[in-house]
Specification:
about 90 residues, Multidrug-efflux Transporter Regulator, Chain: A, Domain 2, 4 helices, about 60% helix, about 10% strand
Length: about 90
């Protein structure tokens, strides 16, 4: 009969190895990442028109390249924080 504590100890050591590997992975740089209108709507779980309305109101800054609308990563997520802070200031 196998000791149950040995099994738990082995599983914990496996978990430690996995956590160490995750922590050692280089962090992804999102500063240059841009999203299309469709991708931004998917990330925010809203309709494309909602994102487009926020761009037209000036709540969300974007760049137009031809007919495409591109939204920088930091602009998309920084604007979310500003909206939350305005909501609680009222």
């Amino acid at each position: 009969m196998e000791n149950p504590f040995e099994k738990i100890t082995k599983e914990l050591s496996d978990i430690k190895v996995l956590v160490y590997e995750i922590l050692q992975k280089p962090k992804e740089d999102y500063s240059n990442k841009v999203y299309t209108l469709q991708e931004a709507a998917g990330l925010l779980k809203v309709d494309k028109q909602t994102v487009s309305n926020h761009i037209l109101r000036g709540n969300l800054k974007s760049k137009r390249i031809g007919r495409r609308i591109l939204i920088p990563h930091n602009e998309l997520f920084d604007s979310l924080n500003e909206v939350k802070s305005l909501k609680y200031k009222r």
